[in-house]
């Protein structure tokens, strides 16, 4: 793509990841928002659903069916899982050169049988599934560059896969002994009117959810198994914390071959040495989720446990940025051959 | 003790656990607050440090040295660790029948060598240490009844020892494979002017602290080893969550002898069947910290992991009540032969 | 009523004011909960809608139509306005001796024309309206004692009427120049699934709502006019603050007859001298909403403005207790001849 | 200044306004940070005091006395008031062409007598005071362009002066009848270790402070009097709300000459028509503080009260951006002849 701006559509623009895509795209020097869809709010100006954009010129919200697929170069799909695969299939038929960055879970599992097992229905676009690339830029950069359809991973998986996969690949930890205790801010649960997301239901308290059986486990399985070159399963527990943004994942791992925390730290530091969005803290230092808020950064810490052979790996991202919309744009940059950090250099907003 | 009210002193009454002791004691039918100490605020009315008590008759704050040890039957020590042992030693010499409930860590470790190792200096009251009883009522009830000095355990330890010890004792889990991922509200860090406890430093975010080397580990070691009848060490990570109150502990355990989540649930349900302050949730249900806020309750949940042989045990308390001042009063009730729930029947304040 | 316990029904028990009624009634020595209604949750145990009550014996939730009106002495109506008047009318016909404490707005306006103007439809129980008593105990205590139907006022009105009416009655302030700037916690908006009450929509920010035209203005008009003995209107703005509980009202008033802040302070101090639930702070001191949280208290402060003749009156309550369920029980106590503080002596939970 | 970058020093870089200056300057295309001072943290890397900047090249923190005044073109002073005037005086003597944007209150009051009255000591740099320009860009743009020393106003004053001054100047409201009820987030209170700013002291509650006698009143007096061309005093009350960022000011005004809300809306809309950082909401719409978070925007709403002649004007900014560091950079842009929005185009971070 030349210096011309990429023409972008955001499907499902009224949710939090949609709003975050718009925030980032509006300041992206190589992108231009051409279409915004939201079924319930079609016909409304965008500032009606996100008043922070008052006074900014943006397309009016339209229904998905009103989208002119030929008028855009790439669409971000911030739609519910299950329906996304049908939508993308339809658009890909209409506009074969159209690129897709899907923020839903629909194309993340390479194995359609696994998809059916975890999501309870057969995949509706198996042929597209076959070409979809798992959009973890730091791991699949080269494949993403050539992809038409990227399945951009979510917040829990991005944060923990980036923390753990290099360690498994290096043979530094036992892939069968990984425990992920993850805490997320409330935006991770979306913007739908759910009783259990009301302010007074979730403020001033903390709780686990989806314990023992959370759909994102399937992505951990897939990626950890690929890294280990054999099937492995991890233990994962998600918790909801009273804050808007942030994933904070505490990983309990067991080293192999006599490795200690120093070795694990070195493996990760080497892996991420040239990565613009990953900050490796010095050995023994602990990250805080608030220090990545609003940025596309991942901060990583490694601390030795007093139990020999056990190490604690701490990882934090902003679930709406590196865990969703920022990473989606990072994928877009790769797909268009833009510099990977284009439009993603915002610093964290702390406090 | 007859129907007369017990005369109580609260040492260190200007901190959060001090304020919580006063809140509970003021409505305790068998207790009367006779003295409140606070070094920096000596001479001030109590409502100056805790304005919620405006209009309530309470003794003025005095310095510790002004305390008339003969005028009280029992003192609660909500003082910093290290100094508490010296204070209690002095008072015990002056008033040999005086009873003590210590909320600091000073008398919790039965082994003085262990104390010295974790706290960095020799214990100053080794003879009192020898008679001190670890004040976990559900486990040491009989000893507490006869004790003169009770070391009331803190929030992390109360919550997780009550969740784990019955399982170790029953031989249901591997005591060498216990991982405790605990999250606490901010009051757990006390009321001192610390930079890292300012609102804007800790709101809207989450982080681990004391990773790999937290003093409360020594109590886990002590109690888990007693239960296992051999030395065991656990992995423990504390996190600070943006809420005032609440401990939420997620325990990853490995079953023994082919046990599953059902068996673990049954062990805990049996153990706590008659306990007034422990609520066992049905198998598979997950507690929330906000549902115990302000109460002396512990809510416990047991969920099977999809990894066979692994189970997740969830436990939550209010760190200032069951994790501090409520449990301290529960200990007092036992020491005086009062009904154990006296003064502790407040229901949780949710939302 | 003899020493027997009053038999109580709570209609609309699944909302926050319902839950708060249950919390308080369970520890009320003279009340027994006999029925709990909630349309959508009928058939469920109460701990399903409020898990903090796990393990406590309570009637199962039933539909309103299943209520046996003859089996209860008093019902609290925590139902939506508009429908409440029809429900109470029906129950009063079935059970003429049944007493009612209505927490909705349905019977608060004595003038049916005014009701119709503000609520947009004719009142459906005009004859009951005529006998209803406005349940502000500190002002209408004698009438409440004899009432069958008490319209218990809400949080904004309770807080500000108690702050302002004694000043108008004493002729100390200009009733035409009262400005009420009030801030409420989120529970004031109820427990319904509303988009604009999701955690991420309302945390970390503040905004006004219902500006210029809020229904509670009609109650200010009614009570301020009664106090002034002529029609007056006040300016009132409500704001939503990111906290669960609390009303914090800042009143800007203009003194009459050369009065200053001292005189206003004295008027209020005299008026509330013997009131158990009102704490008058010393002149110049400022209350905080957190210091009444969970209690039935009102804290009042009076501060001189530097502009002569202007005074700032600050008032705070817990919107769910003195602003709703606590006051409703205070009304019940009066109606049954119980001590007015019975069941309402819980101290504030701070922090 | 040519296309070369301006060389910038940030004095007092370890506080919240210092951190916010760094956040914005790092992405400013025409500015380069050459020096960062912080007395207590001198010698530390900047990421030690603000870990969100981990991995970013920045000068080490130095003491003020180590600053090379000749090496910078402009300094931002984020220092405590009182000491700032002495610091600036000293630097101006050493480096006469150095420009200053002062974020403290030291140079905001044009009248030294007024300064002495409100701050309790004589001004130490009266001659500099004489040349200082009040840095409210939307009002004093032309003077700022030529200034060497700009006194950048703070959050309360920026927000309310921008809301009220155009209305006074237009003769649309009675300048003697302005009431400002303002609510601020916690960062407005700074980053010092104060007991009353601990998380648990201020979360989950709200309170007024500085009632009747707040230093910022002096700036309201100065600017409102200038607009009215005669001395006027306003009533102002500040409140602390449990959120990190945001000023939300509710203004109660009385119209003149029969004007209504429409006229006031028109006055403000006309005044701000071409202003890039001010968004005028449609008549009757109400802003929310969260929708300007992280941005340099001011959102303004005008709503009619039901009391004739009374209007409510609502204004909100981010106290750290438009209320501090963003405005300071806006001033710098004017002083250097840069485009006024340079480096300030970040969109609000919501949620």
What is the element layout, followed by pairings?
The structure is a homotetramer of 351-residue chains.
Chain A: E1 6-11, H1 16-25, E2 31-37, H2 46-49, E3 61-62, E4 74-77, H3 84-94, E5 99-102, H4 112-119, H5 126-131, E6 133-134, H6 137-145, E7 149-151, H7 155-169, E8 179-184, H8 199-202, E9 207-209, H9 217-228, E10 235-240, E11 247-254, H10 261-271, E12 278-280, E13 298-304, E14 310-317, H11 321-336
Parallel strand pairs in A: 1-2, 1-4, 2-3, 4-5, 5-7, 6-7, 8-10, 12-13
Antiparallel strand pairs in A: 8-11, 9-10, 11-14, 13-14
Overview of this protein structure:
4 copies of one chain form a homotetramer. The first copy, chain A, has 2 domains: 6-153 and 322-336, NAD(P)-binding Rossmann-like Domain (Rossmann fold, 3-Layer(aba) Sandwich), CATH 3.40.50.720; 156-318, Dihydrodipicolinate Reductase, domain 2. Chain A is 30% helix and 20% strand. Chain A contains 11 helices and 14 strands. Chain A has helices at 16-25, 46-49, 84-94, 112-119, 126-131, 137-145, 155-169, 199-202, 217-228, 261-271, 321-336; strands at 6-11, 31-37, 61-62, 74-77, 99-102, 133-134, 149-151, 179-184, 207-209, 235-240, 247-254, 278-280, 298-304, 310-317. In chain A, a hairpin with a 5-residue loop joins strand 13 and strand 14 (310-317). The longest helix of chain A is centred in the C-terminal third of the chain and has 16 residues, at 321-336. The radius of gyration of chain A is 20 Å and the shape is globular. Chains in contact: A-B, A-C, A-D, B-C, B-D, C-D. At the A-B interface, strand 8, strand 9, strand 10, strand 11 and strand 14 of A face strand 8, strand 9, strand 10, strand 11 and strand 14 of B.
